[in-house]
Amino acid sequence: MTERTNLSLEDYRWDAQGCCGCRGCIYVDYVFCEGAKNPFRCPSLIRYNFDVYTALGRGKVALRMLNKQGEFTDSTRDILYKCNLCGACDAGCKRNLDLDPLMVMETFRIWAIDNGHEPPEGLKKVTDTIAESENRYGAPHDKRADWLPADAKFSENPEMLYFVGCNSSYKNKAIAEATIGILEAANIGYALFPDEKCCGNPIYVSGALDAAIEQAQKNIDTLKASGADTIVTSCAECYKTWKVDYPKIMDKRTDEMGYKIIHITELAAEKIEDGTLKPSHEVPMTVTYHDSCNLARLSDNWIPWHGTRGRFGCTEPIKEYRRCDTGVYKQPRAILKSIPGLKFKEISRKKENALCCGAGGGVADAYPDFAQDTANDRLNEIADTGAEAVVSACPYCVDNLSEAVKDGGKSVKTYDITQILCEALTGKGGL
Ligand code: SF4
Ligand code: SF4
Q: N or C end of the chain: smaller count of CB under 10 Å?
């Protein structure tokens, strides 16, 4: 058993009370805002249009709870969980102040569970399902690797283990197949992560910290027992969970975890640059790229801080901030631009200012209508680029956007980047 770490709302009291109400967490900074059409960065504000459904509002509610000034009601739960934990507010806030509004909201969820409150029903159902079956779909655990083609070329001494994730193991299996296609084209010695279990992202975002630690520990123990120390993922959510949330809940720096986590786009971009991978098959398509929150602005290495605050919030020892600036932004773009026949169009809200697809933070499970509203907002922005397809590097973004396309009768196509790249490398990406 792992000991409970000190990840409490009280740790982020300063970040809630230091809010100056500037609303940088709501608007895209005007320097980065292309025109007047898409000024907002917070999906929750776009949908519910009240300050309480923003980082600044949730910070105020969190303070009331910490100060025992009010009851946690059903409305409080709605305010807390109708948030994608997408981090767009965090990127905006850090342009002005050294505050961590996202951590206020994450630890507020932990506070809620610790104080006997339940997460919303849809999210609870998913966490219960993971506890029963080790995946979010309730599918048989022993069928997790059923997607695997018979001719997969595993290495006996793998350089890295492929952590597939629940989504691509059971649902979007084409992503898993395309990923091993890329690994094999790059001559990487790989094997599947043995006895893979859900990374636990839905558990962490529900606020159930003890259960999230337990889930993380199962996968970390398996990794240790395997003797490997490098993991590759195609799922942005698994990537961020291993890279940021596992160290966060274990109270360690990312580089103290004893393993390295790579997203397939990081690996492929490097192999294209050094000439190992040669995309040679034409993909005649005009595409835009949707930055997944988990792969991009949420994926800076985790840096724990314990210390004291002085006047004006000065820290002792000095706190190192994560500023949403070291995530995987350039690699997916470099991959797309290397593909013959493919035309790339940049979208208005991009990189750290990208609008979430709507699925994150448990919203797709708990509030599917809200998730689809945000996806529709994003699809309008995608349509404005003139691209015929949107590419992402996260199966959950692809799912949420695809569902909105289907329900809205829209014509834009949706792809995971592994499918596009595998097509360009082998002609067998299944497009
Ligand atoms: S995490 Fe995303 S949805 Fe939540 S308050 Fe911040 S910008 Fe809004
Ligand atoms: S950007 Fe930061 S300081 Fe400004 S209103 Fe939002 S949370 Fe408060």
A: N
Protein residue whose Cα sits closest to atom 2 of ligand 1 = 86
- CA nearest to 229, candidates 261, 205, 199: 261
187 falls within a domain = yes
Instruction: Specify if 82 maps to a domain.
Output: no
Report the alpha-carbon angle 35-41-43, nearest 5.
Answer: 125
Mapping DSSP to helix (H, G, I), strand (E, B) and coil, where does residue 309 land?
strand
- Residue identifier of the C-alpha nearest atom 7 of ligand 2: 56
Any idea which ligand is nearest the CA of 60?
Answer: 2
Cα-to-centroid distance, 101 and ligand 1 (Å) = 9
Q: What is the pTM of this model?
A: 0.97
Structural domain containing residue 265:
121-273
Q: One-letter amino acid identity for 290?
A: H
Residue 188, in any domain of the structure: yes
Is residue 193 included in any domain, yes or no?
Answer: yes
Domain containing residue 186: CATH number: 3.40.50
Verify whether ligand 1 is closer than 6 Å to residue 89 (CB atom): yes
**Model confidence at 230, in pLDDT bands (50, 70, 90)?**
very high
Q: How many domains does the chain have?
A: 1
Q: In which element (H, E) is residue 343 found?
A: strand 342-345
